[in-house]
Amino acid sequence: MNNNQTVEKLRQMRLTAMASLHLRQISENNQEKFSPDEYLALLTDHEWEDRQNRKIQRLIAQANFGQQASIAQISYQAGRNLDRNAFERLAALDFLARKENIIITGSSGVGKSYLAQAIGQQACMMTHKVRYTNTARLFQRLKLAKVDGTYLKEINKLNKTALLILDDFGLQAFDNFARGALMDIIEERFERTSTIVASQIPVSAWYDIIGEGTVADAILDRLVNSSHRIDLKGESLRKGILNQSQQMEE
Prior knowledge:
By secondary structure, this protein is of the alpha/beta class. It is 57% helix and 10% strand. The longest helix has 28 residues, at 36-63. The termini are far apart.
């Protein structure tokens, strides 16, 4: 069998990265530098790494993040109330293995969404399935799903994610449907998967925002008691960026 046939068969078997590397090694006459075992390992590792990278990119796309966020770009400047050691332990993702939650609170613009999405993208890099969503828009989609009969299917999709990120939690009042939907989500995820909640509203006010005391108690018991808490302080980071831009223009 000639090399062109080998490359074509590799492609037909969807071993495209292996086929490309093999073709390049042949064209550069490099394959003779390796023993058969070494050459097979080289091709196999290249194919595996390519598939891992494509899987990570697919997971990031499916997560539907609102922005690119990186653990390496997080600011631990004084006044943010963000402990570097504590946050980097969370970024190591051990909380996912323990099925624990994270709650990030703070005023508008202090970086809650960025922190949540940085952890989410780190989880994707480690090949965990993540879903990021604005809380109010999620309830709107679920309400439409209730009408067309796909509600349980949508809930099951959410609960199959290793990490669910609920952003802007509590900005809109909870009606009966939203309370029920949140209960369905949290009940199924409790001690099975992890959730990150980012909110401008302090946790102490969540009981009143959710309403219906019995339901609120059940939700908060499952969500808050198994959570790591980050309460960000300081001025809006967006305001600081805007001020810097204005200064540069002047």
